[in-house]
Amino acid sequence: MDNTRFDKGMAMLAKIDGIGGQEVVNCLEGIAPDFGRYLVEFPFGDIYSRPGLDLKSREIATVAALTALGYARPQLKVHIAAALNVGCKKEEVIEIIIQLAVYAGFPAALNGLSAAREVFGNLQDIS
Questions:
Q1: How distant, in Å, are the alpha carbons of 48, 49, 50, 56, 68 from that of 53?
Q2: Which residues of 61-98 are buried (b: 16+ CB within 10 A; e: fewer)?
Q3: What is the pTM of this model?
Q4: DSSP notation for 76-95
Q5: Exposed, middle or buried, 43 (CB in 10 Å: 0-12/13-18/19+)?
Q6: How far is Cα 92 from Cα 96, in angstroms, rounded to an integer?
């Protein structure tokens, strides 16, 4: 088994979230260990590691996509936190989500803002 993609993905996850992906790999160990590996290798070892976009731009795109989906709240919260970790400001995250109201609808934007509130701790504490 080639560990290069996995190791590259784990290193990229550490840059994005500051802790790495071991937690997600561990939580899938008992049910789908291969899926945990795929989740590290493909998105983070292959896609996030590509040249062309910096991590902030990738997280902006990811927050927008997950907001538009409207049903991926746990992943949205993870990526809102990751966006903050790679340099997005809280105001930028809010603007991304507000922008999505135009294309994904107000319910999706409201759900995204609710997720952001949880991540931020309190919308009134935006700095």
A1: 8, 9, 8, 8, 21
A2: ebbbebbbebebbeebbbbbbbbbbbebebeebbebbe
A3: 0.88
A4: HHHHHHHHHHTT--HHHHHH
A5: middle
A6: 6
Q: Cα 49 to chain center, whole Å?
A: 14
Three-class secondary structure of residue 20 per DSSP? coil
Q: Which residue has the tokens 């991590």?
A: 55
Q: What is the pLDDT of residues 15-41, one digit of tens each?
A: 998 777 788 888 899 999 999 999 999
Residue position matching structure tokens 């991304």? 96
Helix (H, G, I), strand (E, B) or coil at 36: helix
Is-contact 95 57, C-beta < 8 A? no
Tokens of 122: 């309190």
